[in-house]
Amino acid sequence: MRIKAQIKHDSKSIHRKNMKMHAHYPxxxxxxxxxxxxxxxxxxxxxxxxxxxxxxCHLEGFHIGILQSVREIPGFLALLAIxxxxxxxEHRLSALSVIFLGLGICATGFFPSWMGLILTTxxxxxxxxxxxxxxxxxxxQYFDKQTSPWVLGKLRSFAAASNIAAGIIIxxxxxxxxxxxMYAGIGTLVILTGIWAFFQDPADKQLMPQHKRMxxxxxxxxxxxxxxxxxxxxxxxxxxxxxxxxxxxxxxxQVISILFVANNIINYFIxxxxxxxxxxxxxxxxxxxxxxxxxxxxxxYALVKTPWVIAILYILDHIFFNFAIAIRTYYQxxxxxxxxxxxxxxxxxxxxxxxxxxxxxxxxxWMIDYRIPFICGSAMSLISLCxxxxxxxxx
Length: 395
Hints:
Blueprint: H1 2-23, H2 25-56, H3 61-76, H4 81-84, H5 90-108, H6 114-142, H7 148-173, H8 179-198, H9 221-247, H10 253-281, H11 283-303, H12 307-321, H13 325-334, H14 340-368, H15 371-388
Helix pairs in contact: 2-5, 2-6, 2-7, 2-8, 3-6, 3-14, 5-6, 5-8, 6-14, 7-10, 9-12, 9-14, 9-15, 10-11, 10-12, 11-12, 11-13, 11-15
């Protein structure tokens, strides 16, 4: 009898979740389409960027370093999105951000100079970062605590598939088109998607209105701290993991490309499972597994001498990076519903503090010994593992 009762209860629970998903399906479809468009655009921009910068713009390493810093400036300014909500509805700001992303991509090929790249990179980056801020905010507003992890996981899955699609598109058209034609074509596709979305109305008129000012509360400190540490660890991986593979293990472009495709294929299937794990086991257990695993992965980066082991570490690193959605779903559980939009904007800004600081400091430490940045990443993982135990099991 107990088993039958449990099955009946689970069936009702699943039915309720499906009803909630159906009720907010317009917003889910809306965010899914914008996620696909923005991801294809950004990945195409990244894929073409280095060759365009070197062979067309004739830039040196110094210029590239400054451009990478410029690209992160909009992340610092993500909190300004809060004040834009005084002028425009959030879902329309999300669509407008994708339009600006597309404009930046489209314009890139027509300004083949350092200053041109700075301006187009800023435009593209503002669009991308503001879309990501509103994307996360709308997801946490529209889907409840038992549904949002799954939705976030599915959106990550669509992003992984879009990355693969962008790679295939570039691979096919690159022999036949010039850089400005590829940038213009893909940018136009992104712009058209953003324009379509701007004139859609997936909003729920009964949804609780959001604060239109910056909100920083003492009770959100753990969320802020975990967000900062996640950004710092991620920057160590982004700045030094691939560089290690090329510099110390002589990985070719083809091998890096294969690893990239493998990562996205794996993440396409795993991302929804991570969302389900958060729903079943809770944020504390999922994040504890991430930080415990990264503790050893970073140490392995510093110590391993075998190329194929480094490749496995690279893939595992990408998988555990997706566990970070649990930080946002934790915030959803502890936050005042009116604080979701400003909280995501503040969190995005905090996350990007590390984007400027860590690569610079890490580069100095690399000059002393390449293993030091990875040991620091392991230490950060240990600190995060301790901090995440403060998440109450009931949260």
